[in-house]
């Protein structure tokens, strides 16, 4: 299968597409929910199989133009909603019996390469970083947020050890004049990080990740999105998540482990323990990763981790227990719990 899709001359690589298709088996038909439509790579690949139906969502209004292509081609089998996955049940109902719900987290190549969105270090455009349906932009966060909160965001959401140093530098600059562009912000971070040449990655990488996650409440969205998806799935329905950094993967792993019927065994010589809080009967023990060929074609796939779980018919649900594990992230992002 050709994993590329050419839209407006931009080559688009849906990450780990072949692995996703082999898990969800669209050749046998069914309804699939694509929670992160992006450039439509997954949706389009599923719709190639005639007995399938796809309901797709994306918070980014700019994805509508890609969705329109599929709506025109598959008017009876494709529907798109501009919505966040924390609101999944507003647009999808349980009676639609999804066979699989898929999340491919983070930014699309279209969002990263669009200078006007302000996600890239060198963008001379407005410091925006909004994926869509946001409460504030990166400009608001960088220029108005309390210095200590800014430092916590950079430390926790970016796992940046120089967070305080960077927050102090940002504060010093913004007192003189507002920080307007992504390029200005990355040069301030460079200035704050001593000996940055020794870093292989751009010294602003972790701070940009933190600000982007905060602006879009990405961890809150993931936590609530997993809960919403699990509520919508019935017995044998599958939940598939492709994540791109350790914070996301930690959340997905915890969710599946916490609610699977196989709890960690104290000894491999003892029979598996049945958990009381069973939402999933099977989970992938280790994450799948992209193969060398895909990584060569699309460097972004290097950090992708795919985990999936199959829904049990057990109807118990305890989202609060899961949320409690990540209360720190929810509080930092300002989500009410
Ligand atoms: C990595 S891209 C998905 C690419 C897609 N699988 C494809 O093949 O084209 C992630 C997409 O998810 C969207 N997204 C991220 N967080 C979201 C959320 N909380 N709710 C809805 N969409 C979200 C982004 O706007 C982006 O378009």
What is the element layout, followed by pairings?
Blueprint: E1 5-7, E2 10-12, H1 17-24, E3 30-34, H2 41-47, E4 52-58, H3 64-73, E5 78-82, H4 88-91, E6 100-104, H5 109-113, H6 138-144, H7 147-158, H8 163-176, H9 182-192, H10 205-215, H11 218-232, E7 238-243, H12 246-258, E8 262-263, E9 273-274, E10 280-283, H13 292-297, E11 305-311, H14 319-325, H15 327-332
Parallel strand pairs: 3-4, 3-6, 4-5, 6-7
Antiparallel strand pairs: 1-2, 7-11, 8-9, 10-11
The chain binds S-adenosylmethionine.
S-adenosylmethionine is lined by residues 14, 36, 38-42, 57-60, 63, 84-85, 104, 106, 108, 131, 221.
Question: What are the salient characteristics of this protein?
Answer:
single chain, 337 residues, alpha/beta, seven-stranded mixed sheet, two-stranded antiparallel sheet, 40% helix, 15% strand, globular, binds S-adenosylmethionine
What does this structure look like?
The structure is a single chain. The protein is α/β, with parallel strands linked by helices. The protein is 40% helix and 15% strand. The chain contains 15 helices and eleven strands. Helix 11 runs parallel beside helix 12. It starts with a strand and ends in a 5-residue tail after the last helix. S-adenosylmethionine (SAM) binds at residues 14, 36, 38-42, 57-60, 63, 84-85, 104, 106, 108, 131, 221.
Summarize the structure.
The chain has 337 residues and is of the alpha/beta class.
Specify the number of helices: 15
Please tell me how large the radius of gyration is.
21 Å
N-C termini distance: 43 Å
Low-pLDDT sequence parts: 1-9
Number of strands: 11
Q: What oligomeric state do these chains adopt?
A: single chain
SSE arrangement, N to C:
EEHEHEHEHEHHHHHHHEHEEEHEHH
Shape: globular
Q: Note the main sheet.
A: 7 strands, mixed
Average pLDDT metric: 91
- Can you list the strand order of the major beta sheet? 5-4-3-6-7-11-10
Which small-molecule species are bound to the chains here? S-adenosylmethionine
Amount of helix: 40-55%
Strand content: 5-15%
Assign the structural class, choosing from mainly alpha, mainly beta, alpha/beta, alpha+beta, or little secondary structure.
alpha/beta
């Amino acid at each position: 299968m050709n994993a590329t899709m050419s839209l407006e001359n931009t080559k688009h690589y849906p990450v780990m597409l072949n692995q996703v298709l082999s898990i969800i088996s669209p050749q046998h038909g069914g309804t699939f929910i694509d929670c992160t439509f992006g450039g439509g790579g997954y949706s389009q690949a599923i719709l190639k199989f005639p007995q399938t139906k796809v309901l797709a969502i994306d918070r980014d209004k700019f994805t509508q133009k890609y969705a329109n292509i599929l709506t025109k081609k598959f008017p009876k089998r494709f529907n798109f909603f501009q919505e966040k996955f924390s609101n999944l049940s507003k647009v999808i109902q349980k009676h639609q019996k999804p066979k699989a719900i898929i999340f491919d987290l983070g930014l699309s190549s279209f969002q990263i390469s669009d200078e006007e969105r302000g996600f890239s270090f060198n963008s001379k455009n407005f410091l925006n970083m909004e994926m869509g349906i946001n409460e504030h932009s990166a400009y608001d966060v960088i220029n108005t947020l309390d210095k200590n909160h800014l430092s916590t965001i950079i430390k926790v959401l970016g796992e940046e050890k120089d967070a305080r140093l960077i927050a102090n530098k940002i504060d010093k600059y913004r007192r003189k004049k507002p920080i307007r562009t992504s390029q200005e912000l990355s040069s301030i971070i460079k200035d704050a990080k001593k000996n940055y040449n020794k870093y292989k990655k751009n010294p602003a990488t972790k701070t940009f990740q933190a600000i982007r996650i905060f602006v879009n409440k990405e961890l809150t969205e993931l936590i609530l999105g997993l809960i919403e998806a699990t509520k919508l799935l019935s017995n044998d329905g599958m939940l598939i998540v492709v994540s791109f950094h350790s914070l996301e993967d930690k959340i997905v792993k915890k969710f599946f482990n916490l609610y699977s019927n196989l709890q960690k065994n104290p000894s491999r010589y003892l029979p598996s323990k049945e958990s009381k809080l069973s939402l999933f009967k099977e989970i992938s023990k280790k994450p799948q990763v992209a193969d060398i060929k895909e990584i060569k074609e699309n460097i972004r796939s290097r950090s992708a981790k795919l985990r999936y779980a199959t829904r049990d018919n057990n109807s118990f649900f305890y989202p609060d227990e899961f949320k409690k594990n990540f209360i720190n992230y929810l509080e930092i992002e300002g989500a009410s719990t």
